[in-house]
Amino acid sequence: MTQRFEHEIVFGDTTLRDGEQTAGVVFTRAEKIAIARLLVEIGVTELECGIPAMGRDEQERVRALVDLGLPARLITWNRALISDIQASIDAGIRAVDISLSVSDIHIALKLRKSRAWIKEQLKVAIGFAKQQNLYVSVGGEDASRADQAFLRELLQIAKNEGADRFRYCDTLGVLDPFTTFERIATLRRQVDLPLEIHAHNDLGMATANALAGLRAGAQFVSTTVNGLGERAGNAALEEVVMALKHACGVEPSIDTSRLVELSELVSHASKRLVPEWKPVVGRRVFSHESGLHTDGVLKNPLNYEGFDPAEVGLQRYLVLGKHSGRHGLIQRLEQLGLDPSSFNLEKLLLRVRQEAQRCKQPLDDQTLTRLCGVAGSQIFPSGEAPPAGGMAYAFSCSSCSDAFPRDYKHDISGFPAAKTPPGPN
């Protein structure tokens, strides 16, 4: 299905800022550089790269990214304070996101200020930034819970003061895609200022809300690799990219073949493992076990795969387990160089299913060859080793301890133990 989008979509990836705000996550300077380089290499054109107002160390890390001379806009997060913006300038930044709470809840309970103070602070901050010839994005924190008339007033102020765009933040991830579409479409009609959709995933709708915002007229979309971010995270870059491509028929100008490579880099740096079932980049999302699905995939992968796993850097796995059928078993035997006609396939399949239920895991090749040695003694007589080059002839239930081949698992053996973040002083 092809959908019409109003603008060419710009990915503003915030892995290096909002992603690093995931509780307990810290990126080293080298990790930030590696992530930034790979993001740009795959086609991301804007990186939100830090918060210079945090202090000298953060400023130096941001400066290191600036010094790379990457062909992308580097933007930093700032409160609506001149001192924050100056810290970004001192780090070599020429584009700033000026964030300001816009909901009455935040204004009253967090800032303990008034709407009038918010409007004046916004004017002062934008005015200073534009005097320094900076690109300015105004970030409306908690915009999804703000009074929409007041929000429209703030957008008009931002436009009048020379802001380049407005970031609509569903800070608590409380919107659904239908409301997101309506809100963004209404703002687009009311104020002629480019919009960015910044969605959080507290209710599991960040990717859907990001798409809805883009469909409604937002030009920019905020993402993080692997969906890192505060609490339940942000809209995942890999999900938004592939959803645009395959659900919306829009080519996002991103090299998708390296999405898994990028995911693994960020997983390593953040010490946050990617679930094997994670959409798009999870190692097991192209695994098939049930007889019906395996048969369909063997006939044509399009039967049960929305896109080729190689498109994101993955591969397909056919798993033998409780739900496997004859076609999957035959395919695995042939892969092992065994002649399926040498076996009573019905009995062997029954043993495969029983073994999977006993171990509560799929069978690996070693376990299958053990079962073959029992069921097909004419090929593997008792006590004999398999032919040279064959699988190990194990008589223990290896599937109980190692359900998949080594290259199928996400190897974390080299990862340092995750550090516990310090508590409040």
How does this structure look, described?
Helices cover 40% and strands 11% of the residues. With 425 residues, it is of the alpha/beta class. The chain folds into two domains: 10-270, TIM Barrel, CATH 3.20.20; 287-408, no CATH class. Strands 1-2-3-4-5-6-7-8 form an eight-stranded parallel beta barrel, surrounded by seven helices. A two-stranded parallel sheet has the order 9-10. Strand 5 (135-141), helix 7 (148-160) and strand 6 form a beta-alpha-beta unit. Helix 2 (29-42) packs antiparallel against helix 11, helix 8 runs parallel beside helix 9 (206-216) and helix 9 packs across helix 10. The longest helix has 17 residues, at 115-131. The model is unreliable at 374-397 and 401-425 (pLDDT under 50).
Write the topology of this structure.
Blueprint: E1 10-13, H1 15-19, H2 29-42, E2 46-48, H3 56-66, E3 73-79, H4 82-90, E4 95-101, H5 104-111, H6 115-131, E5 135-141, H7 148-160, E6 165-170, H8 177-190, E7 195-199, H9 206-216, E8 220-223, H10 237-246, H11 259-270, E9 287-288, H12 291-299, E10 317-318, H13 326-335, H14 345-359, H15 365-375
Parallel strand pairs: 1-2, 1-8, 2-3, 3-4, 4-5, 5-6, 6-7, 7-8, 9-10
Helix pairs in contact: 2-11, 6-7, 8-9, 9-10, 14-15
Brief digest:
By secondary structure, this protein is α/β, with parallel strands linked by helices.
- Biggest sheet: strands side by side, in what order? 1-2-3-4-5-6-7-8
Distance linking N and C termini: 54 Å
CATH class of the largest domain: Alpha Beta
- What's the total count of β strands? 10
| CATH structural fold name of the largest domain | TIM Barrel
Strand content: 5-15%
CATH homologous superfamily caption of the largest domain: Aldolase class I
> So what's the oligomer here?
single chain
The structural domain count equals 2
Gyration radius, rounded = 26 Å
Shape: elongated
Mean pLDDT: 88
Structural class: alpha/beta
Low-confidence stretches: 374-397, 401-425
Helix amount, in percent? 25-40%
Q: Report the order of strands and helices.
A: EHHEHEHEHHEHEHEHEHHEHEHHH
CATH architecture of the largest domain: Alpha-Beta Barrel
Count of alpha and pi helical runs: 15
**Main beta sheet:** 8 strands, parallel, barrel
